[in-house]
Here is the input.
Amino acid sequence: MQLNNLTALDFEDIKSSIKSYLRTRNEFSDYDFDGSTLSYLIDVLAYNTYYTSFNANMAMNEAFITSATVRDNIINIAKTLNYTPRSITASKACVNLKVQTSLNNGVYPSSLTLRKGAVATGGNFVWNVLQDVTVNVNSTTGIAEFNKLLIYEGAIINFSYTVNTFSSQIYKVPSSTADISTLRVTVKANESSTTSDTYSLVETVTNLSATERVYFLSEGEDMQYEVTFGDDSLGRSLKDGEVVNFEYLTTSGPEANGVNVFSVIGRFVDNLNLSYNSSVSTLTVIDSSRLGDSAESVESIKYNAPRYYSTQYRAVTAQDYATITKKVYPNADSVVAYGGDSLNPPVYGKVYIVVKTKTGTLLNDITKKEISSDLRQYAMASIDPVVIDPDDIYIYNKIFAIYDTSKGTNTLDIATNIQNSIKDWATQTQINNFNSTFRSQELQRAVTLSDNAITDISVQTSILKYIKPNTNQTNTYCISTGSPLYNSSPSKDTGDGTCNKEPILLSGTFRTADRPGVDQQFEDDGYGNLRTFYNTGNKKVYTNNAAGTVNYETGEICFGPVNIIGAGASVPGLDVINVTDSITGTGTILDPDSLPTGLQIPVSFIPDNSTTIPASTPGTIINVITPEVTVNPIGTSLPSTIPLNSLTPTVFDQTPTLVDIDPINNSGSLNTSSCF
Amino acid sequence: MALKNIDGKDFKRSRSFTDLLISMKRNPFTYDVYTVKNDNSIKQSVKNLVLTTPGEKPFQPLVGSRVSQMLFEPLDAFTADTIKDEIINTINQYEPRVQLTSVDVTPIYEGNKLNVTIEYRIVGLPIVETISFVLQRPE
Here is the structure.
């Protein structure tokens, strides 16, 4: 027998295949005629083959989530991926409800409670509150106001099971229209018990103890959700005779969206147990009903289930660490994570997580360890998550604007407009964050457009970084701007054939252990060395011409070895030090334990390229300091764009104020409602 | 000019029809199912077609005649005439081996039956065959 078409799944194809076989034989010949008995027999054979092959094909298709078509089968596969599909969602409306209470013995009740259950009717639907809501009554007017009250469309259903451990019991939410997000699971000790325990939903067994009152949720057959309880190993199991109660909302979903007329049917009880009916209440609609949605479609489940599975509860890629860090540490404003192998030199087996907090402060060591250990349970076995502080680079701009005096405006207004435009620019570019780049052109354009009286602007840009020395320890401190530094031209002849260069970096004031009585600063000599000096009032006195090194190509400076005991305003008191020479500041430390700690020395640099300053590492945050704005009338000459000899690091002894960027709260949808 | 000899074997095979017996009875000698041949096979096919209800053959909803439904119509000359037309149409459409010469449907009012006599000529053979059967509602 020659099978000419093995993959034929169509009835006619199978039939013609049998006929072509019979054509090769001479026992029978009537197969071509519809009335022949043989034709009937062939029909039965083809029918049988057709159904067998269809079943085989269907069964295989239904075994894989990509090819399955029957919802129950897709749900079953999604269940093994720990994916619970979204149920139908009740429509919600936001209303303001005012109830006029009545006097009792001359006083109004102190509080009024709106009972759980139906509150209003509207659009052929019933609207409910899911919990009792209690508000205070205004003692003068007697009005109780339920403001921004969320009412849910549907009907509250209570369904109970009595636990019987002798048979296998499935705890189903017996409705396909239940909004599962409203499900409340309580367990009573027995039928007559008046108290009950509330069980909470968990999605993962991580950190679950044997006694925790939790339940797991999955979608079962016919879109009815199944509740599974623990086994006394992961979560508490149910005991014989206990009564499980499900309270949930059955809803019409999206059909109830858009309702904006409601009439009150709720029950109100005051603290004196007096009831009020709906006639003493007034309802104002704040937001018409919305957010009702049908259950997740099979296409959506097929799309989402594998994707959730591939990311959930595991930290594999660097992005996973950043996502999970935000979950375990909600105060993180922004998180960047990168593998240690991307560093120079590479550090294998470590993932670095850089956290920028919402408050802007650095994390303390305890919090870092906590985050690290929280991440540990998600991380792969050999990977060590290390939480580090962000590398802050501050960019300080001085903006000089020339304005046309004939435009009828004043310098104050222009300065305000410039500051506002800088705030807008910062918001749009999200500058004070990871992975950002400072682009001077964008800033200048924003400033130029901020006021039509501005004719010209000029920007001086300098970079600020902090050295954070350890008090009374001899160390070398290295910091890097990540980009080349400006290399100034020789200017003054010293008379011995060498030329002086203008310094392009300057530090704030600090005190060293050998000269505790005088504020010193350091600058560069233009040839790759740092030198420290103090100011007598009319001249600089250099104290060390080899106090460190500068690399103009990489922007790295190393200051030290040096023993710092004070910086800026944090200087040791006269009782802590003994100054032997008040001019040179030499002396000794009397009480090392009383020296100030938490020191920071600001260092200002002139960058080689001030138009584009990128983040040097993934953990670098570019911070823009609120700029200094100078507005002058037309005709004034603009200063140089390179602030040689005009660096002012001492004003940044304290961490400067940054350009304020409003947080983006509405990430995602454009929902401007006050209620949702 | 050489001509291929048309022998008796070739001639016979061209009009030979072999089919299974509809009752699927076993031949007691060969222990195999009975076969019907040639004119008998055509006769069986015609009868099969008339007694098949449309939809009975899987995936071929048009094959068959609607006489079994019509048996539930009032037994009169009109119904008999409709049944006759139905039989003619069915045989003309699905049995290309025969050419109908006459179809006679006679109501038997006692017992609510119809007597059907189909007379046909087998295409290519000068043989006229007749089938007679009684159509009756299932008791």
